[in-house]
Amino acid sequence: MVVQLGDIVPDFEADTTVGKIRFHEWLGDSWGVLFSHPKDYTPVCTTELGEVARLQPEFDRRSTKVIGLSVDDVASHLKWESDIEEVRGHAVGFPMIGDADRKVSTLFGMIHPNASDTLTVRSVFIIDPAKKLRLEMTYPASVGRNFAEILRVLDALQLSDAFPVVTPVNWKPGDEVIVANSVSAEAARKQFEGFREVKSYLRFAKDPKA
Fold first, then answer.
1. Class of domain 13-145 as given by CATH
2. How far from each other are the two terminal CA atoms of the chain, in whole angstroms?
3. Which range among 105-114, 155-164, 171-180, 196-205 shows the weakest confidence by mean pLDDT?
4. 111: nearest Cα among 69, 147, 150
5. Distances 191 to 95, 186, 187, 194, 206 between C-alpha atoms, Å
């Protein structure tokens, strides 16, 4: 099964470091970030999990639940978490899925045989409150992820869900946004502060959340 943007993501039941969960029920009305790790006790993932633990308040502020996954079991995850806290200085407060049977990894297409037929690639899935996949990013085993970028994408998605806008290249919160072409120039002038038209198809305005 290949999960594509706009699809409702698979539901599943799994053991995690906080007990057994049913994924859709656990997500509830929140946004979600599911991210995978090739295996426990890998150096790059140790730094990543510590960074997500540090950023936990930022995910909470965006009403976003974070959950990790590795092909090792929960007992191994719990031991690894002690190392992560020791090395990075932040306790892991989000669940980690034990996926020794590769069930969840297979559901989400995280096993790429030409990379490894047993270990997961470094995937990131952003899921909205309707359980739809809004972003997928896949990294090779040698490259650490940039979680500041994942937070930036969350901000952009949540903004475009709340207002008829999209975000330009390198956008960050507070920067100008692009007014969606579905909004007339007349309506945009009334709705958005700082509206300016560069081309008929390219109209900017101030970030409505700023």
1. alpha beta
2. 40
3. 105-114
4. 69
5. 41, 9, 6, 10, 11
Which candidate, 147, 173, 146, 170, places its Cα nearest to that of 158? 173
Q: Is 188 left (phi over 0), alpha (psi -120 to 50) or beta?
A: alpha
Reported residue count of the chain is: 210
- Residue 156: pLDDT over 80: yes
| 82 CB-near residues (< 8 Å, 6+ apart) | none
Tokens of 207: 């970030």
Residue extents of the structural domains in the chain: 13-145, 163-205
Burial environment of residue 1 by CB neighbours within 10 A (0 to 12, 13 to 18, 19 or more): exposed
Q: Is the pTM of this model over 0.85?
A: yes
Fill in the amino acid letter for 37: H
CB atoms within 10 A of CB 200: 8
Question: Would you tell me how many other CB atoms lie within 10 Å of the CB of residue 104?
Answer: 21
Pick the CATH number of 163-205 from 3.40.50.300, 3.30.1020.10, 2.130.10.10, 1.20.1440.230: 3.30.1020.10
Q: Long-range contacts made by residues 166-175, C-beta under 8 angstroms, separation at least 24?
A: 168/204, 173/207, 173/209, 173/210, 174/207, 174/210, 175/207
Give the torsion sign (CA, 189, 191, 193, 198): negative
Beta partners for residue 177, in sequence order: 205
Active site residues: 45
